[in-house]
Amino acid sequence: MNDTSRSSPEADLAFLRSIVQGGGDPRATLTMGVLYLAGGLLYGLQCLFHLGQAAGVIRWPGPISLAFVTGVTVAFLLVMAWAIREDRKRPKASPVVTRTLNAAFSGAGMANLAIVIVFGFGSARDQDFAVWLYYPAMIFALQSAAWYVAWALKKKGWMLAASIGGWATAVALGLLVREPLAYLLVATAALFLLFAGPGWIITREALKARPAADAA
Fold first, then answer.
1. Residue 25 pLDDT more than 60?
2. pTM, entire model
3. What share of the chain is helix, strand, coil (3-state, %, to 5)?
4. Which keywords describe this protein according to UniProt (predicted)?
5. Which of 1, 116, 119, 183 could be bridged to 135 by S-S, CB 3.0 to 4.6 A?
6. Domain range list for the chain
């Protein structure tokens, strides 16, 4: 009679693989995907708005323009609040890969805050808005590093493309801070392609995985 109390080596390996690579709760990646998608679309739209202003197509009064820009940030903060609330609902346990990815992007977020303070203070002190424009370049550089970690763990081609694209965008923005129109063009394309694009992919994959997770 077979001893069913012992698992086979294949079953043990499958179990270990599920711990490291397991699907986990789809909400763990859904919130991240929605944040990237919303950030890319909203701030990409804001860059398009500024391009329209630079081209003379959009001639809104100052208060209305300010209200629009403020509305973009408020909308993103609302999405962020939703994401934080959703993250608190999901189980804390998650696969090693998921936790590592979360740590990589959370670390990038912490660095972003420091960069905001440094470049914001430097720009105000020197009365030079161009100093502040180096901030987005640094953000894309950090995102490039985070996406490289993601690619090293997941080996998905689009993650490597996002990493390379982020690196190239960081360099381009850093070189174009004194060229407003070219800077806006690069930033607009990068926000749609490197933020909204990955956000859409992550969101789509998480939504596909959700029915299976709910049925489990």
1. no
2. 0.78
3. 85, 0, 15
4. Membrane, Transmembrane, Transmembrane helix
5. 119
6. 25-90+106-211
